[in-house]
Fold:
Amino acid sequence: MATRFVLIQPSHAGNVGAAARALKVMGFDDLVLVQPRWDDVLERDETVERASGAVDVLRKARAVDTLEEALDGMTHVCATVMTPRDFGPPTYTPREHLGPVAAQGHGVAFLFGSERYGMRNEDVYRCHAALRIPVSPDYGSLNLAAAIQVIAYEWRIALGGFGAPSVAAAPVADAAAVAGMLRHWEEALVAIGFLDPAAPKKLMPRLNQMFNRAQPTTEEIHILRGVAKAMAEAAKKAKP
Structure:
């Protein structure tokens, strides 16, 4: 899913580098700066040093003159704010808002204001939602790069995280295969004397429910039928 992090008028080169590092750690690499303090901020020594190896994100990053340019192609825009704005978009915590957004498949842009004065009202108003990171009421000051790290983390979790490499699941056996296996087991259980066909009670329905919950694969059905076959053959050999 297209994801972009937009820094509006960043004033500290170190924060730009730290932002690149925060994005790379979470697997994102689309960073756009709107009217940065220095034209060469992406190449400054402090920026590169604070990026700490995320120079590929810096090389891909770009600076633009307007927020309109920065948001090109994005369909859902989130502001980051400390306090809700009158007449602004609804305010959410990242966790409560980002899950539903991820499910909708939007191209999402996250906006961060200047370190000196935050986001301007006019920039907040154009957003679909405002995100407020829950912080201590006694000290709510977050460094720009730290805020980016939190939002990037929450968005990565909403997208499903990284996790272990996915392994294709074995196909679950269909209802007919389960029913056939249960008939085979019923015959075997009768053969070994575990099931009395004259008074079966609820054994087979309970086994049916158990296997439905277990959702055995086709291969597991073959194994279970092999067990039933072995039970029946052992019972046959045991007869005088």
About this structure: The chain has a mean pLDDT of 90. The radius of gyration is 30 Å. The chain is about 45% helix and 10% strand.
